[in-house]
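Figure 2 data, in text form.
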Amino acid sequence: MPPKRELPPKESAIFKNILKTYEHRQYKKGLKLADSILKKFPEHGETMAMKGLFLNNLQKKEEGYDYVKRGVQNDLTSHICWHVYGLLHRADKNYAEAAKCYTHALKYNKNDIHILRDFALLQTQMRQYDALIETRTQLLQQRPTNPPFWIGLAVAYQLAGKPDKALNVLTSHEESVKDIGNKIEHSELLMYHNSLLEEMGDHKGALEHLEKIENEVMDKRALREKRAELQSKLGQKDEAEKGYWGLVEENPHDRAYIKALLTLKGLDEESKRADAYRFLTETYDKYPKSKAIENLVLEYAEGDKFNLKIDTVLQNALRKGIPSLFASTKKYYSNSEKHAVIEKLVLSYRESLEKSGSFTPDGQKEPPTALLWTLYYIAQHYDYHSQHDKAISTIQAAINHSPTVVELYMTKARILKHQGHLDKAADQMNIARELDLQDRFINSKCAKYMLRVNRIEEAEEILALFTRKDVPAVQDLVDMQCQWFNIEEGYAYLRQKEYGKALKRFHIIEKIYDDIYDDQFDFHTYCTRKMTLRAYVSLLRYEDHVRDHHFYLRAAKGAVEAYLALADKSSNGDGLDESGMTEAEKKKARSKARKAELKAQKTNEKKEEVPVAKKQPDGTKQPVDQDPNGEKYLHTKTPLEDAMQFIKQLQLVAPHSIDTHNLGFEVYLRQSQWVLALRSLLKVTEINKEDPSLKINTERFKKAGKFKYG
């Protein structure tokens, strides 16, 4: 032991107690104990590191980091110091630096189980699966009787794409895992074992294993679904069909079961549509309340069969007043014959209802609301075909019929939006909102329409009706990770050229996805302990593609556009867009900009006091946003580099989007990176040669290259 690290017996016992206080989260007590050692041995590195860890957990981050760094400097060969330093970086989500610290710690104590366990969690988070296998193997060698370590190694092999080795690890320790007392956890482990067999492609083995474990599995539906699926893959059609019929009997509303039966019977081919229709109608007769089967019947019906069936469906829905009818039937519009039939029927309904009050001239009398919902459907039908004048007149007729139905005003607002009358659409949506002030959905929809026409303050006031009263509405929406609001408000600010506020909103979306990614960390331990392994693996694979979501794509594109605008403004050195100005106008604009900058500096000097966080009823402090206007984004010195951070993500998650490569082209062109700009153009060519942006950007590329190289 190095001389600096050696402590007398009394202080050594205190230090061991310090480690225990950290494990029990007694941070204040641990801090006092650390101080008692440092009074006598002020240069003791490990005690300094532990004190820094306690301070960090007591919300004194800067002081904590200072003590930990000094502790590492005083004892560079201490695994405790490096481990603590890694814990601080991990708490700050700085996973790369934390990994470096753990690597140093293991140099000086390669068998420390706590460091190895923490390192394994970090490697899983960073998707370093090959290294994870090595770490998990070391853990297992340290504690071969610990079942979670066997499970952890099996999962590591599966994540690395080696399910066969994962299965070997699992089966080699089956006797130990049988000792798990909780039946549900044991059941989950058995189903995970089965999923590995299936992932290996051993469907026969997986089916045999299912039969073997049937009595021990608690999730009976999952077992029956998996058995029917495996039987289908193995060509055991009769057994699979029997299994799926049992599932349909239990839940006839699951479309997947019916589709599986169609496939088993060979009725999913185009040439067998008539037979498929016959099978589906027979099934529907058994389960007449199943909308899933009814929709499939309509999908496979042709000619007069479709005419009769859709007539019945439409009349029943209009009679009951189902607002979502158009949304559920417009999928049939892709077939021109079915589209014509539906259009003819609904128009005839309107005519007959207005004349005789029935769907057909000789039919029974319908309730007055039947005409209302028929008009509602027809208005949506016209809007779908961009016949906006007809749509407006039809929805107005419906409003005249029943002026208190909220959906009618919402649809009128949507039609006005499609016409391009965004302000009128927002006003109309507000009328709908005022009809039902307790409806959160309509409230949110109205706010979105307000934001689309840059009426930001009105939108925030409307949203405040349904947010917490003890915090500002915007802050509450940020806390709730309300993505649509931040995106719409970001684009509203972008249209108003308030780039700082726009970037603030778009970076909030970035943080939301960072938080989603960071939140999985706790599951690395929890899921292997609770044996929810199938869900855990599914979660990790989902997290790998979480940024594919269209919300993230929209926010990233908005952020890049804002950064490009900032780059263009600062390209002349003054932060001004001087294109089209005379010399006199340029001088005047520069003078005005300098005065504005001086005024802003004075304002910032007055705002030197940091806002104080408000205490909540539970004693915690509500964090205060110290940069609500996004000043740090607005005054960035590297807008193009900042834009590239978003573009790199877009290139990963949306490589087939023309917008991705067009935005990349814009940045590369401004950076004079000609090869990368050309590559972006070639990517657009591969996606769509006829895209109108391609010709324009190609000409810009040629001119830029000619200007640079003459």
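Caption note: The longest helix spans residues 583-606.
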